[in-house]
Design goal:
The protein has a single domain, classed as SH3 type barrels (Roll), CATH 2.30.30. A hairpin with a 5-residue loop joins β3 and β4. 18% of the residues lie in helices and 36% in strands. The chain is built from one helix and five strands; from the N terminus they run ββαβββ. It is an alpha+beta fold and 74 residues long. The model has no long low-confidence stretch (mean pLDDT 89).
């Protein structure tokens, strides 16, 4: 699933693929914001870790979970 993170005062966004489910990512973001954590840590499907200061978060967009299609689209 694709995750996109907007960062305040920055024209670009972080975008990466993750093996986590939408509910897991949503829970991680909510927990970081609710507990007042200084950072949000999310891992991508290649094992890289993204650490974003929670004060700098503008938005977190969680893509829909999609299974791979097999065959051709007409």
């Amino acid at each position: 699933m694709e995750i996109r993170i907007g960062i305040r005062n920055t024209p670009r966004e972080l975008s990466f693929e993750s093996n986590s489910t939408a509910k897991e990512v949503e829970a991680q973001v909510a927990a970081a914001l609710d507990t007042g954590a200084k950072t949000l840590k999310l891992a991508d499907d290649k094992g890289r870790l993204f650490v974003v200061p929670t004060e700098a978060l503008a938005y977190v967009e969680i893509g829909a979970e999609e299974t791979r299609r097999v065959g051709f689209i007409a």
